[in-house]
Amino acid sequence: MSARAWAKDGLPGVFVGKSSSLLPGLLVCLAITVAALAVQAVEEHLTGHPYIEALVIAILLGIALRTFWVPGERFRAGVAFSAKQVLEVAVVLLGASISLGAIVASGPALLTGIVATVLLTIGASYGICRCLGLPARMAILVAAGNAICGNSAIAAVAPVIGADARDVTAAIAFTAVLGVLMVLGLPLFVPLVGLSEHQYGVLAGLTVYAVPQVLAATVPVGLLATQVGTLVKLVRVLMLGPVVVAFALIAPHLPVEGATSKAGPRRLGFSKLVPWFIIGFLVLAALRSLGLVPEAVVPLVTRAAGLLTVISMAALGLGVDVRVLARVGGRVTLAVTGSLALLLAVSLVLIHVLRIA
After folding, report:
1. pLDDT at position 194, please?
2. End-to-end Cα distance, the chain
3. Staple partner for 58: which of 79, 88, 295, 314, CB 3.0–4.6 Å?
């Protein structure tokens, strides 16, 4: 068989054909990612902190581009690949940022309080969203984003429950806006409520969405607030794995959006109940906790996960018609705001119940 024939008909030919079909859409998503990272770099240079992260910027740029240009057939495979498979790899790599040792050292009372706060917020936020008429999958995305880690939680939960690009983008967009407002407004709780640095660190760790935003919200208050806030935030991030597995079990029983009746329970295999990327996430977290992931490698893996997530968010933005998003904006805004207010209230109660000084 000639090299040309083998390239056409053999395994390499299949690989080349698949890659070539993905390349146009991937290149578009990469271009948006580069632009988003450049905007974040300018923002950090001017303000010192990424108040609006590249992940959110990529979504906004993707939506803006989609408003003026609908990706044709040759771009769709690459955009779909970026939105799903690339995102799944990013979720796996996030596991390397989790260390169980530091979590256990924080003490059982605080650990229990954080877990209870996350679970209570998920349940209550879901209820708020459903009362406002949001679809079940959108309600889950908002609840997970508010309770755990904002954009990353939404992005991780979305493929497990089968949420579409419109729901994911709406949840991330409104959560991101409130995330920035939290960074700017949360320090006001120190004089208003009379919080100590330690108390404020717990509050920031329980309520602020992203780790960089926790740093931005706590550094102005003090070193202790920053250390405590980061630790509490890591515990919340650790909840992502179990929560995603739980939603994977619940997903087959969720109502079919737009249908008049609920979908009946389906018999699914283990790989469907617990997707491969969640297993990968938990394995990497366990390896990191056992010291089998070198510390020097962790920042590289974390940055790679962040980059892949930005690429996938660019793809999600490209799949959203802003006119459809605008029609659900009011209810989503109320749902996210109500959920965040609830999280703040529960966090303040926890601080006083545990008598954190």
Report:
1. 82
2. 76
3. 314
